[in-house]
Amino acid sequence: MKLLKSPFKWYKGIIIEPQIRDFFLGRIWIRTSTPFPQEKIETYLRFFKITPGISEKRGFFNRIIFRCNRCHNENQQEFVHYNCARCNQTCVYCRHCINMGRVTSCTDLITWNGPKPKFSRKHVLDWDGTFTEAQSKATKELTKIITRKNNHLVHAVCGAGKTEILFPAVLAALKKGLRVCIATPRTDVVLELFPRFQKVFANTIIHALYGNAPVQSGLAQLVIATTHQLYRFENAFDVVIVDEADAFPYTFDLALQRAVIKVKKQNSPIALVTATPSHQIHAQVKHEKWGYSFIPKRYHGHPLPVPEFQSLWSYEKQIQSGKIPRKLLNWTETRLNNNEPFLIFFPTIKLMEIAAPLFQQINENILSVHAEDADRKEKVLKLRNEEIPGLLTTTILERGITIKNVQVAVVGAESKIFTSSALIQISGRVGRNVDFPNGEIIFYHHGITTEMDEARNEIIRLNTEGFGDKKI
Amino acid sequence: MKRNEVTNCLICNAPLNHQITWKSFLTNAFPKTICTECEQKFVPYENTSKEVISLYQYNDAMKDFLHRYKFMHDVMLAKVFRAQIHEQLSKTHATIVPIPLHPTKLKERSFAQVDELLKAAHIPYEHFLEKTMTDTQVGKTRQERLATPQFFKLIKNCKNKEIILVDDIYTTGVTINHAKNLLLHSGAKSVRAFTLIRG
Q1: Which among A81, A395, A428, B19 would be 20 to 30 A from B135, CA to CA?
Q2: Which of residues 61-80 of A touch B (CB under 8 A)?
Q3: What is the ipTM of this complex?
């Protein structure tokens, strides 16, 4: 849009409504289902770039390969042909991102191509905590990536204060007028990070995006989103930080990993933050020469609790016949007598639901949670507020929760679902508080697996890295 | 029929482990499209009359299914109940008549949900009706629904035909009754109805 030079000429352009510009900046959206009236979109159409929903290219033997332009999915199994009554021909749609509204080959996707607003550079960090030596080293390294445009991995043990490490780096980026995105595979993590960032960055507009999130107004310079929500952005961010980068489904879903690359601007850096980087991530770091920060110590300077293995032979049979195995029963009763909150992890929802009434016979306030539980948040809050003595859970609570003085037992630690990273995360729930740096973490098993060994060895290795050769 | 057309559950995306059996080789049965756990969430409907036959009750799982199929436009989900629909409708000699959508509604939705269900189940059908009202029954109270005037018109001669009307859901029965009355008045020999869901 040309600026008016002489005030005497009639100016015939449109003054762009800031809401529309702010909303669409960096976003990719279906033309017909925006949150604005359709006429408005049509009048502003010249400020948008229009791309077809599904693009096709040719592969081997001239085979058509479809690609969804919103989620960049290329798994051909997820493309469906159907007879479209709108175009009277066969159209294709993508099932991968259908929950966000269907993208077909006959839908238009719009991206903002009009004038771009400038971001504010006035930001304050209202946080007066202090960093340990390892933490401040990591923050310096992380801040550097903004200017160097180099990808980075922050490997910090559970309870090392990962969120706090992000603060100075995010502040430095915001002060340069850059747009920052913090993405994570889990909604729970978004819900936990959002208030914490809002508190310390009082002058910054921050949006939290997750499934069914309320509409937030203004131009957000800092976006905290689930990785799924990244499908809705394109070429938007100058810095992308992926928290808990090893959590399900991010590592399994190629489209989600592509989404992270899609939302960043070209040459913008990605930072991964995790407690348990997979072999795949380690290989990528080595191969692509990423920066690497490692924090083996917790913020309170105490070693990580090392899990203890206890046999619990045929626990499944015993629970199914209506009896809690003796060792587990003793453990639970000790926790109840000592008034310590506890978490018991189960491998399947089914087993947990059989066990729940048995535990409720000992203490009727013991509750159970799983992924599809609507009261998940309230139940965890109850445990934190010491309203209930303990919770039975599936792997859903393996990361992102902090409860003072919690004691943890894993039933059936040999199950496939408990991978070494899951077990490390579960062990990381224990002893996060300065006042209670120790706690019990017991793996009850029906035979020891390599994953269990791997988890324990990794924790011992981290402790020796953090504390030298000192015996723990 | 392609055997490996669907490899993951269409509803929860869990991998389906197709077991190759002699039966699947030699018969022309439809391969599974949803996993056993999702299948168990749908509750069959106990039919009391022979006039209107329904397959499933309207529960939370069915609500999610219908939402994703009709409103998120996931056409692929038409395949979920194809085996059951095929079993119900393939043996009859009567003419299958799906309840139509209004043409503008069809343009908006880009597919006719009942037609797609029948196509997926390999049931031949014929259109006798056309809808003349654009607004839907969704969001109306029971009284409002029952008070709606006739909203179908005939587009083909149906004299002396045995007809089975097919719709996706039966709630108050207004849609089915209007269609039935119109067809009977126009000389159809008998009219029965089949719906996937009973609300």
Answers
A1: A81
A2: 77, 80
A3: 0.88
